[in-house]
Amino acid sequence: MSFFVAANTLIGRTLKHEGLNMKQKILLVGFLFSLFMVCRANKQDEVTFFAHIIPEQNALFVGDSCLVNIVLYSSHPFSEVKSSPERLRVKNGNVRLLPHLKLRAQERVIVDNKIFYAMVWQRFVVSSDKKGEIRFASMKFIGEFMADEASTRLLEQFFGGLPHTPQKIRSNCKLPVFSLPVKPRPKRSTQQMMSASNRVA
C-alpha cells in the first residue's frame, strides 16, 4: 500500500472516530495532512549534484594559453562546498589559479531541459610548451545544500509560531579526469610571412 493510500485511510478513520469531537478531528486531520506533505516533499529533496570542467577552447596550440572553469551544478541552492584536493592538478602543462571572490556567486541555468543552480568553483589559465595533451586530475566535492523551504515550514505553520530551523542536505560528486589536446603550431605560408614582413617595414 502506498503512503498516499495509507494516509487517506488514516484520515478517513479519524473522521469516523466517535470518541473525538469535530474540533479534535479537524486538528488531527490537519496534522496528518501536513505530515503527509512533509514526507512527500522530503522524497523530492534528493539532491542532483555534478561538476563539469569547461575549457575556453577545445584544443590548444603549443605556446598558447586558455581559460578553464570548474563549474558545479545542483538541483538545490548551495550552502557550503569543499573539494579534495583543494585545487586542480594537471600533468604535461602549466596552470595558474585565478583569484576569486570569497563568496562564490550562484545562478540558475538550464542543463538538459532542467533548471539547476550553477557556481564557478575555480578558474585557471593553462598552457603547454609541447604537443600532446594536458591531463586534468579528478576532484571530489562534498556539498551542503538548502532543502525546500516550503516543505520544511508546513508543520511549523500548522502549530503556529514554532522556531524555524533551516534544513540542509548533503551530497557528493566527482569531477572526472579530463584531457585538453595540444597541437603543434601550424607553419605559416610564404604569403603570410611576406605579409608580416611588409607590416613590420
Report on this structure.
- With 201 residues, the protein is α+β, with helices and mostly antiparallel strands.
- It has 2 domains: 3-43; 49-183.
- It is 28% helix and 39% strand.
- It has 5 helices and 12 strands.
- The strands form 3 sheets. Strands 1, 3, 6, 7 and 8 form a 5-stranded antiparallel beta sheet that branches.
- Strand 7 (106-111) and strand 8 form a beta hairpin.
- Mean pLDDT is 76; it is low at 3-7.
Layout of helices and strands:
Layout: H1 3-16, H2 22-43, E1 49-55, E2 60-61, E3 65-74, E4 78-84, E5 90-91, E6 94-97, E7 106-111, E8 114-127, E9 132-136, E10 139-146, H3 149-152, H4 154-159, E11 168-175, E12 178-183, H5 190-200
Parallel strand pairs: 2-12
Antiparallel strand pairs: 1-3, 3-8, 4-10, 5-9, 6-8, 7-8, 9-12, 10-11
Helix pairs in contact: 1-2
